[in-house]
TrEMBL record:
Species for this entry: Popillia japonica (Japanese beetle)
Transmembrane parts of this sequence: 29-48
Designated name of the protein: Uncharacterized protein
UniProt keyword Transmembrane helix, yes or no: yes
The keyword Transmembrane appears for this protein: yes
Amino acid sequence: MVCQTGGGVGIALFSVLYKEAVGKLGWRLGLQAVTGLLSLAFFLPIVYRSANLYHPQRRAITHLKNQRKKSVKK
């Protein structure tokens, strides 16, 4: 997740991660470890659900948003 905060930061962190993984685990296991981490970084946000879905006043908030949209269209 930290690697996705920005282009420059992501490139800097990924290159260090890649170098350490390949250096310590060897090229085959290092690449598998990096692939596993990148797969987690891709699939975990898919199952993440925003906290506002569980908000106790979710219906009221949605109603207010819809009312605001209707008033803007007029």
